């Protein structure tokens, strides 16, 4: 017990020092403060990688299962999707190598459509469960190793709804395939502020115990206080998640490569994403 107490004290001291670095009085934590707190959390609690390691394995299984499925999907690991790729993740991606055309729903038979939607909902739910578990483990004042079931359920519902909305936007954007630069500007000007706004909401739901609407409203305060830091984090997480899929090039086959890349990318970026959300949530609320 003495060893555990001393380890806990060391972690708490690291986190306190990290959280004291704020961009300016009255403002939210800056990017350096968020990263320092996140690093302290990861160094003091290596078990934080477990939720997304498990979820990444599930994502790898799903990715491999998609290849022979009747749904038209492809693999686009780094650098096949381009050396530079802009991605703003609402939540971590459990299938970062999967490339899905927005037109995938066009002409799909009802039974295949139902199965496809169920598949997507299952992936979103698995992401939310892993996210909830990591947020709970990273929080300083929580009991047990798993969050209350009702909070996890609310986060699952929240993630599924927002993911569905984002997929709908993606589907509609496929109808504007010729928009080119205009479509990119729409994405940057519309989706980016929306995702920055909702960045901290998962922690407010899981750790704070609030319902999704109240969490989204409160998350706006964090977004207004640290908009630049959140945007940089989202862009960085999106690109790192994509870049890590390049490990597939060293595998013996595309299938094995996709599985390895999925586990690595989901584990690293998923854990980092959740810990960064926790760091920002704690940094401003304390």
Summarize the structure in words:
By secondary structure, this protein is mostly helical. It has helices spanning 2-19, 31-44, 50-66, 110-138, 149-175, 181-197, 201-206, 212-225, 227-243, 254-285; strands at residues 73-75, 98-100. A two-stranded antiparallel sheet has the order 1-2. The radius of gyration is 19 Å and the shape is globular. Residues 1-10, 18-26 and 177-181 have low confidence and may be disordered.
**Total count of strands:** 2
Secondary-structure-based class equals mainly alpha
> In percent terms, what proportion of residues is strand?
under 5%
Low-confidence stretches: 1-10, 18-26, 177-181
Number of helices: 10
Helical content stands at 55-70%
H/E element sequence: HHHEEHHHHHHH
Tertiary shape: globular
Cα-atom Rg, whole angstroms?
19 Å
What's the arrangement of strands in the largest beta sheet? 1-2
Q: For the residues shown, what is the average pLDDT?
A: 85
For the terminal residues, how far apart are their CA atoms? 27 Å
Largest sheet: 2 strands, antiparallel
Q: Number of folding domains? A: 1
Distinctive features:
single chain; two-stranded antiparallel ribbon
Q: Quick recap of the structure?
A:
The protein is mostly helical and 286 residues long. Helix content is 67%, strand content 2%.
What is the fold's blueprint, element by element?
Layout: H1 2-19, H2 31-44, H3 50-66, E1 73-75, E2 98-100, H4 110-138, H5 149-175, H6 181-197, H7 201-206, H8 212-225, H9 227-243, H10 254-285
Antiparallel strand pairs: 1-2
